[in-house]
Amino acid sequence: MKRLHMWRATLRIARRDAWRAKGRSALVVSMIALPIIGASGLDVALRSADLSTEERLTREMGTADARFLDLGFGEPIQQYPTDRTSAYSISGYEEPPTEEDARRGLEAALPTSPERIVTDASSSPAIVTTAFGVAPAEVREVPADDPLTEGMLTLREGRFPEAAGEVAVTEAFLDLSGLKLDSTVGFPDLEDTAPRIVGVYENPSELNREQILAPPGTLIAELVEHGVVDGVDFQFLVSAPDGVPWSEVLKINEAGWLVSSRLVHHDPPPDDQVPALAEGRWHTANGDVQAFAMVGVVLALVIMEICLLAGPAFAVGARRSRRMLGLVGANGGDRRHIRAIMLGGGLLLGLVAAVVGVTLGTLLTLLARPWLESEVGFRFGALDLRPLELAAIGTIAVVTGLIAALVPALLAARTPVLQSLTGRRGVRRTGRTLPLVGAAAFVLGAGLALFGGFALNEPVAVGAGAIVAQLGLVAMTPVLVGMFGRLGRFLPLGGRLALRDAVRNRARTAPAVAAVLAAVAGSVTLATYYGSEEARNEAGYDPPVPYGTVVLSAGEERALPALSRVRDTVEKHVETTARADLARPVPEEKICEWWEGATPGCGLVRVLIPVENQCGEEERFAENRAPLPWRCTGSDGYRTSLGEEVVIGGPEVLRALGLDDHRASEALEQGKAVVLNPRALWTDTPGTEPADGTVGEVTVGLSTAETIRAEDEARYAYREAEESGSVTGAVPASHTVSVPGHGQAVALEDWMSWGPILPSDRMERFPAVYVDPGKDAVGTFSRLAVLIPPATAEAAGLPTVDYATLWSTSAPPTGAGWQAVEEVLRGIPHGPQASVERGYIGDTDIILLVIALFAGVVTVGAAGIATGLARADSEADLATLAAVGAPPRVRRTLMGMQCAVIAGMGVVLGSLSGLVPGIALVVAEHSNRLAMWEQNALGGGTDAPELFVVPPLGLLGLMIVGLPLLAWVLAALLTRSGTGLVRRAE
């Protein structure tokens, strides 16, 4: 009972003291409450955004019992029970069926007859007309008014479509297109189709999806018939009498169907009944433990920052209340009571901060909920308040207040009663134990970070060492502040006074410096890591064309008519230095992408190479990882902006690609082809690497779509035979074709060599010269293999089509000129594609800017808080300066210098301490990459990864010079020059 009365008294005294010092109390409450506002708001937002199982299923399948998706594998699959996107294909792939075929396949796969089946069809993006031109949008057909689809779509305005000629659109599509309710949506490729918008809706889980909704069977079939869309995804909502249990899901998986069952989601099977888990294809992630660890680290850092900044406020409060605390001691109170009074202040302010933080966090989340939903792109579920979690967050505020008040309470309790009553501060000495422990922790942590980076190759060890080293530096801060005091002789009067005051009042200065140190050190560590990673990415960037080159290409037949129009636009609005037009051979009447070879009218153009020049699997994947033979170097399957192996063009094409070789130009002028891949050159000694400048021949094969389809069937048959074990040993003769006068040949692309190829419908042989593009050549040469002069192609009667242009520029085009080109391209449905090579563009600049802003806010905030406390703590000293004749501006100058001194000390110490873990982290990442390179037999095919360590010198200079200067200016501007009457207690 006696102890209870003591705490009641101390809390009353703490409440009175906090009320008397409203500004300081509000400062402490705000510092503690700010992270509590963020944490409580984040908790409410995350819990509300985490949909319940029933909410998620309603958005996915409405009121249906299951949702079925045919993956098109045509063979059994394995799936995860509660994830409708995770499936493992056991066998091959087949083209997706039509809706009728898919529905028949589903009915055959279902063990029991369903009550109802509703089709949900979604097409690939179609080009539609808008108020500004054209834009892509997905077309969907699903009966929105059907009871099975209830909850999947939310009507925002108007009504859902009911008949042909009516559509509803998402709000995202309206924002994109500039259309509105009752407008019509046209399709450039369908002149007579322009349905009217009768409603606006949203997908609750995909707010940013640009989609058009039509009644079933009214629009998608027509779009497919006219080639407006490339494919359709059919899913089926099924209502079953007793639901779809896991046993039936496994049976349906045998037919290649992915099932999302409501019954299974509510009652998932154990892991041993999930084949993919039992066979080790998936592993249950330990993400909860990792997330808990990350939250714990972040929480510890936040509490440390708050304590470092709030602690000085309690220390200043103790000094300003020293007379009151002295009276407590003079009236029989002991150290225990004084500590209780100070801790009571921390407890009281922590409670206030907890209530304010949790309340404001919840309210702000409710107010910001629409904005948050629009930013994340989905609607939250019902408001989910977890009282225990919010109470735990509030407890953090109380604990933080107690921790921040702990050290000032211990110091106030040790102050003699006479010293407290007279107001004298006495002699301040820094203890030796804490700095020594801090020095030992710093050495230990730095050693662990370096050892983890250079020896263990373990980023976790680097992070742990960095945290230990930072804590050691924080403990050493009072001593380091004292060492900075020796620089006072080199500073002007204001700087000497500010530095002297900072050193004399280390209890106030050291925490602020430590807070700045911790923030800057973490920023420098991250900046070192990201800067080095960006340097590595930039060094590994392989441009497809030289810097500043404008590339215009038509990848399909319907883009060709607009090619000349776009060329004229580019030359009108873009300042160019050279131009190179390119043509490509075509097997049939259409111009198609390489993956469309089997499409009627397309076909393939391939370079045929001697079978002796082919890279075998035993060579490519040799265990000794010796340097690969010349046949296995290069990446023939890599396609760039040209996209073709064989191109028709003159010397200007090579110059536009950065290869200005006189031998290549002379060869083209003489009517010879230029070969850029040594494997493609036919010589008298096949299998021998040709030297640069070797003369020989090149063979180009043109295969029709019918031939490519026959090859595909033969490949699938060969793969089935290979899986069954009936095909073994060396590559059979069916993998090669005979080139008259040369012998056996294979296609240049290694990725095509796993199955048979058939003789091309037409083979052309051209005299050729091999030119080595060099290691520094742009990435285009890893795909472009043969350049044939136009006159030679015409003389051979080779069918060609003009399809691309390259322009060289002095600098990448920007501004109004390039915008004019993009405007013309946007107005051409299925038109040519244009791009500009602007070099490597990373996002590290944005990351470094965010890091600098974070460090700046913490630095200026910590320095400003310490300066404000110093001003409240030094009114008597400022009055003394005024009394001895100091001009009024001295007050402002002194406050500015105090803020700059604190910021400067923290930035310098933090910059030095942040470099060590940053470099160690970069080295650890490099060591891991090097180990993976050595283990994966990459030694012969690629160069070893290179180490890039790039200290953020620009950021360091900005922080060391700019932040103290910014803190100085802000503190000076916010400080009054005049001073009032002060009564000195001494």
UniProtKB/TrEMBL annotation:
ABC3 transporter permease C-terminal domain span: 313-416
Transmembrane in keyword set: yes
Any Pfam family: FtsX
Record-annotated membrane-spanning stretches: 291-317, 338-368, 388-413, 434-456, 462-488, 509-530, 846-870, 899-924, 953-974
Cellular-component GO terms for this entry: plasma membrane
Membrane topology value: Multi-pass membrane protein
Subcellular location: Cell membrane
Main location: membrane
Key words, A-Z: Cell membrane, Membrane, Transmembrane, Transmembrane helix
Name of protein: FtsX-like permease family protein
Organism name: Streptomyces calidiresistens
Top-level taxonomy: Bacteria, Bacillati, Actinomycetota, Actinomycetes, Kitasatosporales
